[in-house]
């Protein structure tokens, strides 16, 4: 039973990473992007909280063991990918003939982003998830009412940082904002993630009381429909920069409803659909997240498609189909990347330093 539950949770993460990749391909504001943007990041934190409740991992491990495990699974890949991406960027700058002054400035900015855990591009997600889970570890060890208060406080903190960063960006010189915003972003995004870890943990306990599959499915469908309709009011969202759209509270609600709705639907569909692609995407979501944009694979696929087919300029059926076509090519390329990482650099897949015969 537990194995099946983990299967649909992997599929939920797979749906999440495909939403993220699709959003990085599309460049036109449209209803699909808005719907995905409402919960494509939240679903990863939500699934994390769901798994913590399902597996009872906070009871299995001491705080020290828990932190070491998650540092191995998330922070070692963060260090490894950051090193590879940094070397790649240096090589590209050298190839393009950039001046030494520009290269030195870029290296300083890159190192500052790395040290402050702001991360380069999608690399922000790994330390963010790590910190969110550590925050939850310490919150979980407090009395129940304190936990509830911390969860509610995190919601208020999300609103505060959303507003603060907007004011900072408008009121500061661009360069000053760049350097001062990094540590604030790292902290605020971790608190944002903590909010959804709490939601996932709590709602697993609530949903575990309702075992009738059709009721769970209907609830999931209703929550997903609500998320789709409500997402139209959110406007542009960008969790990377802690911009939570026109209605931040509604976005956080959609993060919960969209994530839970997706999980309940996939749980029901698992009985008839193996979901091989989504499960594969979910299991390898860290690799896909870290590589699809940072190594310019996405840009190569988009520009290649434009060169061969010419990408539509207006949102519509053709644009969506072409964006899906680009994503198919990109994910095929990622199949090779995933195979290489899992076989030769398992530490970048969150598997730590293990002997080949110990890796499953």
Q: What is the topological layout?
A:
Elements: H1 2-25, H2 31-37, H3 42-55, H4 57-60, H5 63-96, H6 100-115, H7 125-140, H8 144-171, H9 174-207, H10 213-230, H11 248-269, H12 276-283, H13 285-291, H14 297-308, H15 317-344
Characterization of this structure:
The chain is 76% helix and 0% strand. It has helices spanning 2-25, 31-37, 42-55, 57-60, 63-96, 100-115, 125-140, 144-171, 174-207, 213-230, 248-269, 276-283, 285-291, 297-308, 317-344. The protein has one domain (2-283). The chain is globular. With 360 residues, the protein is mostly helical.
Structure summarized in a few sentences:
The chain is mainly α.
Distance between the termini: 20 Å
Assembly status: single chain
Largest sheet: none
Number of contiguous helices: 15
Which residues sit in consecutive blocks of at least 5 with pLDDT less than 50? Answer: 1-5, 355-360
Q: Key features?
A:
disordered C terminus; single chain; 360 residues; 0% strand; disordered N terminus; mainly alpha; 15 helices; 76% helix; globular
């Amino acid at each position: 039973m537990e194995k099946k539950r983990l299967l649909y949770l992997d599929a939920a993460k797979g749906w999440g990473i495909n939403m993220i990749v699709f959003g990085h391909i599309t460049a036109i504001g449209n209803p699909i992007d808005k719907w995905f943007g409402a919960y494509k990041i939240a679903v990863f934190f939500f699934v994390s909280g769901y798994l913590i409740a399902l597996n009872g991992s906070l009871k299995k491990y001491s705080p020290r063991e828990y932190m070491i495990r998650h540092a191995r699974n998330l922070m070692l890949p963060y260090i490894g990918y950051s090193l590879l991406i940094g070397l790649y960027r240096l090589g590209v700058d050298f190839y393009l003939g950039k001046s030494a002054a520009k290269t030195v400035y870029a290296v300083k900015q890159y190192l500052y982003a790395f040290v402050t855990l702001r991360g380069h591009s999608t690399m922000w997600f790994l330390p963010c998830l790590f910190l969110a889970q550590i925050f939850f570890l310490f919150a979980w060890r407090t009395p129940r009412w304190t936990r509830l208060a911390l969860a509610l406080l995190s919601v208020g903190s999300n609103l505060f940082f959303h507003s603060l960063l907007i004011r900072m960006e408008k009121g500061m010189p661009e360069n000053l904002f760049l350097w001062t915003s990094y540590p604030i972003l790292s902290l605020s995004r971790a608190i944002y993630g903590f909010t959804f870890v709490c939601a996932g943990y709590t709602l697993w306990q609530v949903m575990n009381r309702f075992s009738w599959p059709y009721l769970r499915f209907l609830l999931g469908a209703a929550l997903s429909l609500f998320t789709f309709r409500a997402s139209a009011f959110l406007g542009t969202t960008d969790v990377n920069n802690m911009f939570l759209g026109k209605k931040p509270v509604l976005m956080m609600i959609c993060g919960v409803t969209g994530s839970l709705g997706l999980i309940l639907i996939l749980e029901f569909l698992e009985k008839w659909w193996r979901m091989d692609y989504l499960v594969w995407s979910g299991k390898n979501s860290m690799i896909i997240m870290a590589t699809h944009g940072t190594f310019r694979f996405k840009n190569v696929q988009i520009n290649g498609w434009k060169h061969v087919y010419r990408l539509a300029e207006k949102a519509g059926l053709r644009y969506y189909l072409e964006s899906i076509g680009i994503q198919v090519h990109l994910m095929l390329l990622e199949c090779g990347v995933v195979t290489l990482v899992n076989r030769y650099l398992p530490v970048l897949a969150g598997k730590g330093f293990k002997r080949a015969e110990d890796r499953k």
